[in-house]
Amino acid sequence: MATSPTSPSSPLRAEDLLSDSSEAPALNQVSSEVTSQLYASLHRSRQAEATARAQLYLPSAALPPHEGLDSLAQELSRSLSVGLENNLKKKMREDGSKHIFEMESVRGQLQSMLQNSRDTAYRDPLIPGAGSERREGDSFDSESTATLLNTRPLQDLSPSSSAQALEELFPRYTSLRSGPPLNPPDFQGLRDALDSEHTRRKHCERHIQSLQTRVLELQQQLAVAVTADRKKDIMIEQLDKTLARVVEGWNQHEAERTEVLRGLQEERQAAELTRSKQQETVTRLEQSLSEALEALNREQEGARIQQRERELLEEERRALTLSLELEQQQCRALREEREEARAGQIREHQQLETLQVALEEERQAWAQQERQLKEHYQALQEEGQAQLEREKGNMQKEAQAAREAQQQLALMQAELRRAEGELDTARRETDALQLEMSLVQG
């Protein structure tokens, strides 16, 4: 991951991170909030470190910087935890690849900043006046751990009891005893000089002791800074583990999404197969319905034909009835004109023969028509029975139509039986007429 190059004198700052992050692709709102929190925490950490290092040159009565570093580390850890929890809660609705990209970017920037801070802390010497010459926010001077540990203790810094050390510490005393005394010694002046040198020596010892105390404080502060760096390293490791968990969760989410898509595809194929089967069933039902309608139309046409035949039979029956009435009238006329019958016996006999022939023809016609009606009835009955067997259980309307056709057939059969009865009656009347004619002839 590319980051802007930094030097020990000008480390990576939060403003540089913000300017670099503005060139990256636009991320979602949650990731931007987490990133801004991280940058703000890092900026506060840098300011706290700068304050702690600046306090190295302040009196020891100032507030120890490790308390601020601990609170800042806790705040940074808390903000990271909150940001990661919010990120994990919304990872199912956001783009996981953008989250991973941003986490990688933040991790790299954290490592770069911490490495630069650690290198600067271990490389720069302790110069009391250098802190005021640096800009605020830049790297500041510090003393390495080895230098602080190698500092001489108080007894090593104390002046030696040798003559050379005494001469270095007490130049006035040395100048007084540099040559042989020409005059008698001034004991009062020597006593005053000795007291002054004792006072100066005590002051120097107190100053050296305060410097050693300051060195110890600096060592403690350095240990606190190292501890803070370790905490930051631990936070980076936790961030790496969290990133690994996020990647694992995202991979699991992708696997679940793939499985769901596969299940949906299978359901879609099953639905397509079911729909095709239903379409075939509907097509078969439509075909059977059209066949049933055609059969119903044929039945209706047959019923109309039977109705016309029944009307024709009714007309023939009326004609026969009229003819029978005419015959009866003729018989009455014959009975009334019995006397005249003998004269016209031949004519009457011929008329009787003609009538017998006509009656025989009529009887044959009736018999043939009866056979035709029976055959037609049988055919209709067989066709109706076959149609009923085919259409049975399919549609209630077709069954009702079949029942109506059966009722019509029953009515026609009843009409046929009635016509047969009337025909039998006509036969009996004809036989009676023949008997009367034979009696008349006898």
TrEMBL record:
Keyword set includes Coiled coil: yes
GO CC field: centriole; centrosome
Compositionally skewed regions (Polar residues) per UniProt: 1-10
Chain segments annotated as coiled-coil in the UniProt record: 261-436
Region (Disordered): 1-30, 117-143
Any one of the GO BP annotations: regulation of cilium assembly
InterPro entries (alphabetical): Centrobin
Record keywords, A-Z: Coiled coil
Transmembrane regions: none
Protein name: Centrobin, centriole duplication and spindle assembly protein
Organism: Pipistrellus kuhlii
